């Protein structure tokens, strides 16, 4: 297993290109299952999660070609040869559940493994299932699998009121509804930019959708969808992560392709901490104003609130802030596994349930640490960039799920970081 070695090396200066969004791409890829015509995704990120989704779609009979070094994905689902998403793939990546809605909508049946537990909390899929049931699907849970059947004549439009905001359940229901008979209204739908991106792509394929980006999405079912070419939206989590690099180390970095509207609530917190963010012709420029970062309180919420996927990285910043910050995690229980690792680097963090209290220290110290999940792993790299001495982050396969060429992107700005093959 590879590790990453980071040495604190002062200020960072330069440019970092931001890739297409992993989470958007993982929802766009299964949209191929809705049509027998080709779907081409451009600006795709090159990540192991994308390769896992590729394998899953191929196991169902879809063709997926990775072109231009992986930045273009050419997908085609002329006829599906299998309708079963196996446990071996689903357990690697929860987003696999997103093949359920499209398969059911197109062919009237699907068998998908239940994703099972996950390091950042229980993460059930009940909301996905309730939405599909409201559209008439019959579901049977046995042997660890969801066996789903559409009624004769296919899924029916329905009013679905989500009791809590779920990105994945909104995506599954949205895709299923494009081919259902009649009108579907999704209420308390997720408003994330990845949902907006999916709706735009589906519309390019011929779907009739209104209201994406608001909490009510209306879908008028159509008989069939066609092909399309669609660019994947910029990754707001990768963007926010690299915005934190000059914030934590000092210096000034331009994030190419970055846009404020993707990271509004996050920018407000950066501003309060003393970090300046300005728009440029090509993206966003981030710089630390004079002196130490100030403590700020953060609460994670569904979009447009502060994203849970930036909580670990923000904690790394606040570990060196002046004063005490309170971070409240409201989306996932048990998402503070980075806290004990940051503590090994000299951070002062107390966790009680979903709340972490961080008292800033002047300097973190390098240490051997372990990545426990995707966002936790990059928070340890950020902390290592600001620490005195060497930090070795082990188990970086988590990192490779969501960040492409992290060493290259950071070293181009002057960071001392390299991979140690293991
Ligand atoms: C997506 C993102 C993930 C991000 C999360 C929240 C992808 C591939 N992943 O995950 O990076 O952290 O949104 O922004 O896009 N819930 C239920 N029942 C369900 C579904 C969800 O109770 O059926 C709960 C979850 O346990 C969690 C909350 O709802 O507490 C939000 O989860 P959800 O928005 O569904 O997250 P994902 O779509 O899995």
In short:
The protein is α/β, with parallel strands linked by helices. Helix content is 30%, strand content 26%.
What small ligands are held by the chains?
uridine-diphosphate-N-acetylglucosamine
Q: Strands of the largest sheet, in order across it? A: 22-23-1-24
Report the mean per-residue pLDDT as an integer. Answer: 95
Structural class: alpha/beta
Strand portion: 25-35%
Shape: elongated
Amino-to-carboxy terminus distance: 4 Å
Biggest pleated-sheet summary? 4 strands, mixed
Regions with pLDDT < 50 over 5+ consecutive residues?
none
Q: From the alpha carbons, calculate the radius of gyration and give it in angstroms.
A: 21 Å
Kindly state the number of beta strands: 24
Our count of helices gives: 14
Assign a percent range to the helix content.
25-40%
Could you characterize the architecture of this molecule?
This protein is elongated. It is built from 14 helices and 24 strands. Helix 6 (167-178) runs parallel beside helix 7. Helix 12 links the parallel strand 22 and strand 23. It has helices at 22-28, 48-59, 87-90, 100-107, 126-134, 167-178, 193-204, 236-249, 264-273, 311-318, 338-344, 374-386, 397-402, 406-411; strands at 3-7, 12-17, 39-42, 63-67, 72-76, 84-85, 109-113, 138-142, 145-149, 159-161, 183-187, 208-210, 216-220, 228-231, 251-256, 275-279, 283-288, 298-299, 324-328, 348-352, 355-359, 368-370, 390-394, 416-420. 50% of the residues are buried. By secondary structure, it is α/β, with parallel strands linked by helices. The mean pLDDT is 95. The strands form six sheets. The chain has a four-stranded mixed beta sheet. Strands 2-15-17-16 form a four-stranded mixed beta sheet. The protein has a four-stranded mixed beta sheet with strand order 4-5-3-14. The structure holds uridine-diphosphate-N-acetylglucosamine (UD1). Uridine-diphosphate-N-acetylglucosamine is lined by residues 23, 26, 94-95, 121, 123-128, 164, 166-169, 194, 308-309, 331-332. This is UDP-N-acetylglucosamine 1-carboxyvinyltransferase. Belongs to the EPSP synthase family. MurA subfamily. Pathway: Cell wall biogenesis; peptidoglycan biosynthesis. It is found in: Cytoplasm. It comes from Cereibacter johrii.
